[in-house]
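Record type: monomer structure entry
Structure origin: computed from sequence
Chain ID: A
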Amino acid sequence: MRTNPVHELKPLSLVNRGPLRKVRGLSAISNLPRHVAERQKDHALKRIQKELKMDAEIDILYDAPSNGQGSFLFLLAEYGGTLAGFSSLGARGKPAEKVADEAVDSLNDYVGSDGCVDPYLADQLTAFMALAKGNSSFTTPQMTDHLFTNLWVIEQFLNIEIYREGERGRGGRIEISSD
């Protein structure tokens, strides 16, 4: 493997996601009947078309490598300025339609919000933003405990300024400035 190290991280600004351009996805199964993947796909597509008023593309993977049985649905929302992913795992006794509903519900929650960075990515970005020279910022549809904890930990180690706008469980904005 050959890598090219980065000598300095550049600040980032993820405050506006832009228009929704496309939704793509993957319905995958392992050691289950083919109709499970097809039902996940079909149910998700119907809801996306009805609720988001757009077409989507969902591929099927019938033979995901696994020793056991399982299913998975992943949806990717492609915006002008960002990408956001949403997923759901199947479980014994959980209908394929429920798997699809969980992923589509997460997608709909995100689409209906103003945040640019999904809540699961927001807390992971903060360390890199703190190490970048300059001002970085993002908006998120939900300020999580993980996000606030990561910000607190970063402040214990680095001499940076953090601006927080928003409450736990609600949308908000984070700005991090470092020299």
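Annotation 1: The first helix runs from residue 34 to 52.
Annotation 2: The two ends are 33 Å apart (CA to CA).
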